[in-house]
Design goal:
Elements (H helix, E strand, L loop, with lengths): L1 E2 L9 E2 L13 E2 L1 H7 E2 L1 H4 L2 H20 L3 H18 L3 H11 L8 H9 L2 H6 L2 H13 L5 H13 L4 H23 L1
Antiparallel strand pairs: 1-4, 2-3
Helix pairs in contact: 3-4, 3-5, 3-6, 8-9, 8-10
Amino acid sequence: MALVTPGTNPFPLNRNSSNASSGRTTPTPSPTDAERRTIELSTSLDQSTRYAFADLLAAILRMDFIESSDENKEFSEETLELMMKHLKLPEKTNRSIRAHLVGEGTTDDLVALITMVKSDAFLQKNGMTVLLADMVTIFVDTGRYDCRYRVLMRHVSALLAVHWDAVEEIEDTLTHLLIEQQYDESE
């Protein structure tokens, strides 16, 4: 799931709450805003958009990671599987995208894939940042958000014309939300 607000931070924080013990202002999640903005990309995006996005990810993973080492090949395969599962594509489509990851039957026409993703009505209305917010959430949920995820995100953001600062803001806000959640659970 991703949190959506066109032109704003997809992970809203209520920065006006104060920490009673220290008297300082700390960021805290605003669950009502977050709940109102939660969407499921697998149902919000057209199937052709989900296919194009998954194929774009396969192309980026292939070019950046697949041939550099066995560890990176495993990372690429696991990351693609994770995203395909999240996008809820048909298994026949997933087989095709898996083949594209290893260079079989693929086209490197990234422009066509990017154009297809950018032409999605939902993304035109809500912005490309929702895809990146969704990716950050999915990757953090794995429990191992390493630099390879950031390299992938950096390339996706560049290709979709999303400024990298927006991705870093998503990461920062998610960090604050996780810290706040951990703090609430430990009380």
